[in-house]
Amino acid sequence: DVQLVESGGGLVQPGGSLRLSCAASGFSVSNNFMSWVRQAPGKGLEWVSVIYRDGTTYYADSVRGRFTVSRDNSKNTLYLQLSSLRTEDTGVYYCTKTGGPWDWGQGTLVTVSS
Amino acid sequence: QAVVTQEPSLTVSPGGTVTLTCGSSTGAVTSGHYPYWFQQRPGQAPRTLIYDTSINYSWTPARFSGSLLGGKAALTLSGAQPEDEAEYHCLLSYSGARWVFGGGTKLTVL
Lengths: 114, 110
Hints:
Chain A has no helices and eleven strands.
């Protein structure tokens, strides 16, 4: 069975950084498209980034230049490096196996506040 | 960037039928947008209901169906059950490897 477990969320000050991890099991992250999606408190979903099988990456306009998606094939883990964080980046961050039916993790909460 | 629109809220009676829609600011929604529908219950992660316009995921009850209707993607629920009360999110794929979510529809079964 596909399983995705996010970690690394927490409280960080504006301008700070954080690295989120997504440990995958039941499939290989290197052979699939993988995305990050976030949800601000009480709001809808926002697609954040994707990494393709060949390593190509794309980002939403709101995070381009500040966030970086990567993966470690040996650990079967996806990462999202968050930098220059703003209060509006607060929310639950979900890791997803993308393409065909999306599979979702349970999410990790990032709170950007002073 | 494209804007994807959904009804903010809808109400359906138990056993009734309701259609949720998903429109695009760039024009008609087509199969090339690979429309997705996700269900999210309070406090839970989203889960896939429908993908590629009309394909039900393995767990999706048969009372849910996806289609294209009047230039929009549509999710029809026939025979609503109390457990169908949830937020429903649509997702469209655009060129340049961009995905855009709609604002979500809060469905009440009452």
